[in-house]
Amino acid sequence: MRDCDVVIxxxxxxxxxxxxVCSVFLAGAxxxxxxxxxxxxxxxxxxxxxxxxxxxLVIRNDVNLGFATACNLGIRESxxxxxxxxxxxxxxxxxxxxxxVDVLCCSGTIGMVxxxxxxxxxxxxxxxxxxxxxxxxxxxxxxxxxxxxxxxxTLFFDFYLHKLPLPDRAIEVxxxxxxxxxxxxEAVDDVGLWDEGYFLHCEDLDWCxxxxxxxxxxxxxxxxxxxxxxGACSRSRPIFVEWHKHKGMMRFYRKFFRGQYxxxxxxxxxxxxWLRFGAVIAYYTVRRAFSSWR
Length: 294
What we know:
Blueprint (H helix, E strand, L loop, with lengths): L3 E7 L5 H11 L4 E7 L5 H8 L5 E6 L5 H10 L5 E5 L3 E3 L3 H9 L5 E9 L16 H8 L28 E2 L7 E5 H7 L11 H11 L3 E12 L9 H20 L5 H31 L1
Parallel strand pairs: 1-2, 1-4, 2-3, 6-9
Antiparallel strand pairs: 4-8, 5-9, 6-8, 7-9
Helix pairs in contact: 5-9, 8-9
């Protein structure tokens, strides 16, 4: 497991950060780089007190620079030929990193691999293996038309693949999750770093699109288990997270699909994105009001 570094972007992950870093070293990583986006929960201090591993590097940002920018800071501090980007609310199984590296190195055309993202109960999470959410696929999902996929699978295809049977070997997919993303340095040099125009969410889809545009394959490794406490770092600021999620969605659609779809569909998609954001805001507002009333 030489020549493989791990980059973790932390923002108020609490004790989960320590568990994550410990699992990284147990899994055999050579170096762990933690980029902290101005956390206020003491998680970095706790981490530095909990471990004295000389292969741990902590970068403290004075402000929250966003996920993509922090990832780029981390990879610039690494000289390894393979780099794993891992969320701080993830823990690697002991053999997960070895399996992902094995798959990444089995072909010169593979540029990125992802592991089996699962909930603490072992069930698979959505996003670990998926197709690209094109405007049409997003429209289908938003309108609930994906329920017709059994009858017309090509037309009403759902871009989340976790409900399909788990494959018995590594398979090529269109996209994986930025929560666990192992990349080859050679591919990054070819494709370029993360797009810092995204603050939070959709930057992983952007990178997957660009990798594939440059001819690099993306593989999902079903026997590389990664337990993901999804949303653990975003619960304290849900509206802030949702704003950047929806803003990132719009940037993604404009960047890759403008001109490929009729203007009316792109307009409807934009309306749908912001209506969804409004509904999410209303939900959190009502829930907060109800909690205060109780």
